[in-house]
Every structure is written in C-alpha cells, then in structure tokens.
Write a structure and sequence with these properties.
Bound molecules: iron/sulfur cluster
CATH topology of the largest domain: Rossmann fold
Helix content: 25-40%
Number of helices: 14
Largest sheet: 6 strands, mixed
Structural class: alpha/beta
Number of domains: 2
Oligomer: single chain
Strand content: 15-25%
CATH superfamily of the largest domain: NADH-ubiquinone oxidoreductase 51kDa subunit
Radius of gyration: 22 Å
CATH architecture of the largest domain: 3-Layer(aba) Sandwich
Distance between the termini: 56 Å
Number of strands: 17
CATH class of the largest domain: Alpha Beta
C-alpha cells in the first residue's frame, strides 16, 4: 500500500469496481450512428461532408472550428443521412451527423492490425501533427484538445509528464482494463508524449487499489527499456486510494509535491497531465494512423444484469449498448454518464456516445435517495473534505443569500472542481455541490466578461 497522496481534503468512498474482471469486449456496430460536432472543449467542429456522401471509417467528417477545437471522424462506413441538431446525453440539442451503416470499410492507411510498433518518428512536430489530425482530446473527462495542451505557451516549460491512471471515481474500470490489456501501447504512447514535450521524466500514476495494473506496467516498461532508451525516465508510481486523486491539481500535488495556485494551470508548475485512454489514443494516432473512432466504456451498477467494459464506436446510441447487455433493469431509476461523484445524469437514452464517454452507471431508487436536508450544524466536515481548500458551508450560505457574487468570487467559488466531496461529507444532507455549481457558473460568467472588457479596452 502507498501512503503517497494529495495533501488537502479528499474522501474515501467504497470503490465498487464490480466490473474490474470484465475484459474489454468489442461491441457490434449499430445500424446508425449519431456523431456530435461538439465533442470537445472549445468551438464545435465544422462539417466537411454533405447529406448523401459515402464515408469510410476514419474519414474526416468535420474540421476544427477554432484554435481550441478538434477534428471529428466517421466511426463507421456508410451514407450520411442528415446533419441536424439532435438531443445529447443531457437532452440539449447539438449539431450532429447521422450515418446509416454499410459494412465496415476503413480508410486506406489506417493500420487495424494488433501488431505493436515500438519505434516512433524522431520529429516531435510529425507526432504532434498526427495527434491533431486524429482529433485526440483529453479522454479523462475534460475533452480538451490534446495538441493544444502539448504546445505550452511561450515562457512556460514542462518538466514532468504525468499519465493519470488513478481512475479514482467509484465503479469505473475502463482505464484499469486498458492498462492490463493495452499496457504496452499506453507505455509507447507515454514515450511519444514525453518526446513531444521534450521532458526527461514521465510518471504513470496508479492508485494502490489496482496492484495488478501497477505490477503489469512496471514489467511492460522494464521490457521496453531493453528495446530502446526512449523508455528511460518513465516510471510507475503507486498512490494511496483517495478521491479525487485524478483531479489535475491533486495529482500534481501527489506526484510532484507542487501546488497550482488559484486560477493557475498545471503548466505553471511544470506539469502536463494526460489520461491513460489518451496515451493509448496517441499510440493509435502516431503508430497506426488511427483517429479516435472508438473508446472503452464501463457499463455497470449493482442492478445491471451484466457488467462490462466495451469497445464502442463513437456515436453509438445508448439504447443499442444497453439492449446488447440485456436491457434496462426494472429497478434502475437513474443512469449516469461517468462515475457517481462527478458524473452527470443522462436525460435521454436515445442519445449517442461521445469520444469522452467513459461509463454508464445504473442506480436504483435506494442508491439515489438523498437524506432529508436539515440545518447546517457547523461541523466543518465539508471544509475538511474539500480538496481545493474551500469553505463549502460559506459558499452555500453566500449562494443562498442571493446577490453575493463579489463575496463568492473573493472566497474562490471559481476554484471549485465540482468533485462532490463536500456533499458526500455533509451530515445535514445539504445539496452543497448543486448550489455551489450554480454560483460558480455565474461568477465565471462575470470573470469572463470582465476579461473581455479589459482586452477590448487595451485595443
Ligand atoms: S465540490 Fe467544490 S466546494 Fe465541494 S468539495 Fe469539491 S471543490 Fe470543494
Ligand atoms: S458539512 Fe454540512 S453541516 Fe457540516 S459545516 Fe458543512 S454544510 Fe454545515
């Protein structure tokens, strides 16, 4: 067991990784896929195909709509049926390309074999361009375009790449299975990322509730080091299981003992963080010319008939996945995209998966019922649990008072990472996260407007 972890707050929910023994299984291809144009942080992509076009797997459907944006590729071969708004997982209409599937024909030049290729191009710019062309975004939840994150602004230097293999959210196991089943490819993807960033050191950080993954990755790296010096400087670090260890600021604290200041970014302290699934996608892009057309999704929950980790084509309707595994259980009342702490409730089972969809979690009424809210007893447990050092009881009070946005900003509501540790810890069942999240949106809106006004005034 490890005693290495982040220094402020955190909680220890039961990990409930009941799908951990489920190997990644390839889901059949549905009859129709729905590929959203806004699958990343930043501007939505712009379509470059038209209704009636024939497309192949891996073909570009849409190109970046701005500097912070990403390419979107077809996950199937077939005919474009429509380009129109369609409800996403949250039920909000988003532009979407509908494709009727015909066969499974891949674009020429994409290597779909299982052969593992160790050597990669010397020119970092070639690797970076392939990552951009493959439409890779952070697959740990943030979906920030990876090529942008790998290009630090002038004056900022990275001295440590961290691969986030914590998967600290309860129930999720797709990263764990990826480490066990595609560990070599993850390690090579890590070496490519390290090469692009020009750093000597990379750490693959894994929580100590996954000892098999830690052991396996150490063996994989020892073998790769015998083949090439490019794997020198990559180590595996075991971290104590504590939520939210996979949060960027928490992970940097745990691995590097450095603190990112309020409003700061990991690169400010010399760190770049990528997720395990992103490292695998980087391997696929650089070594196989394969864009993101599929991703691993954990389907789980005590009430669900069959636990699974599935390799799913992007844009697959949720109902297709659920029917494949036996249908919605009668006693399930809620489905979450992601884990129980930070995941979002799914409003629409006809919605389709996105690049960043990592899990579908089914919960029963008993698992979702919240205790009756009572008055704050000033126990301070929420502040003790907050990994950002905030005072959730105070943010709650200011939010509910109304019109206290200046005070909320002064008390750093904008630093909230929406981890839910405060809500999890509160004995009075106060919906702290819901209240704080709303205030955060308002305060960040004001901060953005202020920054825009300041920029305009300078011109
Ligand atoms: S949700 Fe926000 S306020 Fe609550 S513990 Fe997490 S970071 Fe702190
Ligand atoms: S944990 Fe709940 S009851 Fe305790 S101080 Fe925080 S808000 Fe109040």
């Amino acid at each position: 067991m490890s005693n290495r972890t982040f220094s402020i707050g955190g909680v220890h929910p039961a990990d409930n990784k009941i799908s951990r023994e489920c190997k990644i299984e390839t889901l059949p291809i549905p009859e129709t896929v729905y590929i959203h144009l806004g699958q990343h942080i930043g501007a939505p992509a712009k379509p470059v195909v038209a209704v009636g076009d024939k497309v192949k797997v891996g073909q570009v459907l849409a190109e970046p709509g701005g500097f912070v944006s990403a390419y979107i590729h077809s996950s199937v071969s077939g005919t474009v049926k429509s380009i129109a708004p369609r409800a996403d997982l949250a039920g909000n209409p988003q532009m979407c390309i509908e494709i009727a599937v015909e066969g499974d024909e891949w674009l020429e030049g994409i290597d779909t074999s299982d052969t593992v290729i160790t050597d990669f191009p010397d020119e970092a710019s070639v690797c970076l361009e392939k990552i951009k062309a493959a439409g890779i975004v952070g697959l740990g939840g943030a979906t920030f375009p990876t090529h942008v994150k790998l290009s630090p602004p002038p004056g900022k230097k990275c001295d440590m790449l961290i691969i986030n293999g914590c998967e600290c959210e309860p129930y999720l196991t797709s990263d764990f299975r990826t480490l066990l089943e595609k560990g070599e490819q993850v390690a090579i993807g890590t070496a490519i990322l390290k090469h692009i960033l020009g750093v000597d050191k990379a750490t693959i950080a894994i929580e100590d509730n996954k000892p098999e993954a830690i052991k396996h990755m150490k063996e994989v790296l020892a073998n790769l080091r015998k083949v090439s010096t490019r794997f020198a400087g990559i180590c595996v670090m075991s971290l104590m299981k504590k939520y939210p260890e996979g949060g960027e600021k928490q992970l940097i604290d745990a691995v590097m003992h450095r603190q990112v200041a309020s409003g700061g970014l990991p690169i400010d302290v010399g760190a770049v963080i990528q997720n395990v699934a992103t490292a695998l996608a980087v391997y696929d892009a650089v070594q196989k010319n394969k864009p993101i057309v599929d991703n691993s999704v954990t389907v789980t929950g005590e009430c669900f008939p069959r636990q699974a980790n599935l390799l799913v084509r992007v844009g697959t309707p949720l109902r297709f996945i659920i029917d494949y595994l036996g249908g919605v259980p009668e006693n399930a009342v809620k489905v979450i995209s992601g884990g129980p702490m930070m995941g979002r409730a799914i409003a629409n089972l006809d919605a389709a998966t996105l690049k960043g969809t990592s899990a579908l979690l089914f919960l029963t009424r008993e698992q979702t019922v919240r205790g009756k809210e009572s008055n704050c007893i000033r126990c301070g447990k929420c502040a003790e649990a907050c990994p950002m050092g905030l005072e959730p009881f105070l943010l709650n009070r200011l939010s509910r008072a109304g019109g206290m946005l200046d005070a909320l900003e002064a008390n750093a509501v904008q630093d909230c990472i929406e981890c839910g540790c405060c809500l999890y810890s509160c004995p009075a069942n106060i919906p702290l996260l819901d209240v704080i999240r709303q205030s955060k949106v308002q305060v960040m809106g004001i901060m953005r407007a202020r920054a825009a006004a300041a920029t305009a005034a300078k011109k």
